[in-house]
């Protein structure tokens, strides 16, 4: 058989290929020749063939058929064969393949070899791809080589010991005696690997950390010798002696000094020397300074030393290298909470970074700028951040606007400044603000009684001819509706009042209604504002009636419903109109952990606190009881059938919902739209509540076992049941939602529907967030009336956000066989 081509010739040939197909053809031809050679057990050229195979592997072609040949080369007595064999084993084998266990005996023999280079090959291979089984078997040999006097083997054995500890942490104590003299070694390679080994042991074991704290003076002495020593050509990098070893020692000192006063005190002086004596003109020096800063900030260092570290980061901000500036901003952001005053000294430099062309630097500078805002600098910082908001890219506007809102709410020097700032944000980036910006600003304006005339005038001028910023238009429409009389009267004292007539105000609001840029929510604000003005204005009531009546036939259902209700106010309840539309009182901002319902804010759904009321204590006539929801009949509300069935038909309904699509099933009845400022609507009491003073439901479930109705993607829904003591047709189902994943599920909504022969009421959930790791549950109550004792079918729909994605799922449950009377035979299951 002719001799195979050399590796150099193969590389030269492959590089001449003009196309991918031509290269693939060459590789396949050579692989066929190598396979033939392997089958013939050609020991002469096995090393050459494996070397070529490794080159093909590096190019991305399969080379797994050479694994056993690598083992044969490792077993060879020739050093050249062993070198290629071990290299092939590190590239082609890993611990997931059982073939690697065949190497254990060869590696053990080579670790005891008389030649240090063969021992070094075995140590490198074990440290690269040794499995936990191999590490257990060979840890004794590694520990023995760690005590040898040969520095070449000691540095390789130390790195191999690091791999052994990572794979089998319980073997850590085996290497403890060998670490005693490692730091006394003069060889920098051994010192470097020893520090890596000590760092690994300290990170993995608190006992080791306490044991090695006594080495802090020795590490300080080594570091001092490095920075004070003269020029050493074998360790010098850009004029700095062995920067790699310096960085490793600083990292180990950071671990040893964390939460320890004595160790921190021992290293304060050397950290100050490193920080002041290291050259900053080259990246090598900057790397050492950065590690020094991290160490100073992580240990219990002196206050002067921390200020020095922050000043170093401040100098980094002036560096031309973008990576160094980004690192400085990130580090300052981590330390701003603990050393706020020191970071404040570099505020102007940080603000200048907002003008950087690099988006990552710009984002870090924006986050740090918001962290620096306080009551003393609020005006200056807001001026810079508002300028940034004007000129920044769209992806920054949402976060910047949110940050300005939070800072203004916390540190506003006056209410006028607060209102002006938020209006400036809405004018500049109104389309990017959070959904709660509109109600928050409305509340702020409502509570600032002395600013009503000024605010409504500013908002009126802000939206003249420009309806592009929808949140601004919504706030303006609300304020004009509330304080339109102040606008027309010209009572503004803060600035020169403008002369506006009632017709001009209505012209603006009508323009909002017909504008193509106005959303459905904005039109609702405008129509409600026009309706409110019917009690504020005196000369344009007939015009307002005409506008409202026009929208009674709007194709927008929400707008049409509002208009119909407002028309009814004019015609049937005109005597109540002024009382219903009177000015809103001062609002109190109350946060609650109670039930929430989904309400609309600025066109998006958002959980809002739900006002709850205690159930009535006395009996109520069934004719005056609130209705139950029939979720299968759209949003219609149908009465619950009383205990004695009547012939009254249920309200318009249909067949079972088609996937519950586009129907509000949150459990609250469709409330009549009202002005944007109406208080939140509480849940209606159940029809049978209050009929008797005795408890309606058993304390424990009688005869109906709990079931798991849904379990998928970490979300689990369980149903538990209670029966009414007064009406066996009424059953209360309590759902419990739990989350076993590692992240919370937010915006959770549970919806249910039943056939129209049933009546169903879905009460508000306890929360909209399902906590991770089963640390909490969401509970929600369903009340079902089954007057005809039929088999229960229920369709459920789940929507939530998880890991940044919107999730939705449906399921249909069937309570089978004999369960129509809520009696449970042993074989009764959910389908």
TrEMBL record:
Residues 702-817 form the GAE domain. One of its GO terms (cellular component) is AP-1 adaptor complex. This is AP-1 complex subunit gamma. Keywords: Cytoplasmic vesicle, Golgi apparatus, Membrane, Protein transport, Transport. Belongs to the adaptor complexes large subunit family. One of its GO terms (molecular function) is small GTPase binding. GO terms for biological process: endosome to melanosome transport; Golgi to lysosome transport; intracellular protein transport; positive regulation of natural killer cell degranulation. Gene3D superfamilies: 2.60.40.1230, Leucine-rich Repeat Variant (1.25.10.10). Its main location: membrane. It is a peripheral membrane protein. Residues 597-627 are annotated as: Disordered. It comes from Ailuropoda melanoleuca.
